From TrEMBL:
Keywords: DNA-binding, Transcription, Transcription regulation
Phylogenetic placement of the source organism: Bacteria, Bacillati, Actinomycetota, Actinomycetes, Kitasatosporales
Protein name from the UniProt record: TetR family transcriptional regulator
Organism expressing this protein natively: Streptomyces alanosinicus
Database matches in SUPFAM superfamilies: Homeodomain-like
Signal peptide coordinates: none
Length: 201
């Protein structure tokens, strides 16, 4: 019996490649529509796989969305990791530029990540909140290790709250930037850099 091209294409993808493909499709759909409006059948259709195969990778829609959120969180954490021993002031601009480049290149995934907080499912919201907490810890660790800022900020109770507020500010700025596009990447970078230094120094 002849094998059609779709079947051959499915076999060419490894398990990891197929999972990545499904997550990419999910990131696009979840970025465009609320959680409740995304149909798992549509994900399978776009990916060219059966619904059963998608459920083999992700047992429930909640598991699928949670995996999309975790994927985007891990990607952002890797790209924004601080360089040990380099003052925050010196690497802040370059780090934000890299981050904003990611936001532009993966706009669907970025939107999908931040849609998670509005999802009605509490388990999905917990995944999102853990991801934000990881970003917060990463920034606080970089500040604590900074040779200039670390001693000044050590033990200051307002630092954690300031970083949390800055993350919310940066998210809002990036989402608006993607929507309107009035500012250049450099303008957004400088705005966010000044905001962080302004709230912690």
């Amino acid at each position: 019996m002849p094998v059609n091209q779709g079947e051959r294409a499915r076999r060419r993808l490894s398990t990891g490649e197929r999972r990545e493909q499904l997550l990419s499709v999910g990131a696009k759909l979840f970025s465009e529509s609320p959680y409740d409006d995304v149909r798992i059948e549509r994900v399978a259709e776009i990916a060219g796989v059966s619904r059963g195969l998608l459920y083999h990778y992700f047992p429930t829609k909640r598991d699928f969305f949670a995996a999309v959120v975790e994927r985007e969180s891990e990607r952002m954490l890797r790209m924004t990791a601080a360089v040990p021993g380099v003052p925050v002031r010196e690497q802040l601009g370059a780090g934000l530029d890299t981050y904003l480049g990611y936001v532009q290149a993966h706009a669907h995934g970025f939107r999908a990540f931040h849609r998670a907080d509005a999802a009605g499912d509490q388990a999905v919201r917990r995944v999102y909140q853990r991801a934000l907490a990881a970003q917060e810890r990463q920034i606080l660790a970089a500040l604590a290790a900074d040779p200039e800022l670390g001693p000044v900020l050590e033990g200051a109770p307002q630092v954690r709250l300031a970083v949390r507020g800055w993350l919310a500010f940066t998210t809002a700025v990036c989402l608006e930037w993607l929507r309107e596009g009035e500012l250049t990447r450099e303008q957004v970078r400088d705005l966010c850099a000044r905001a962080l230094l302004g709230v912690i120094v």
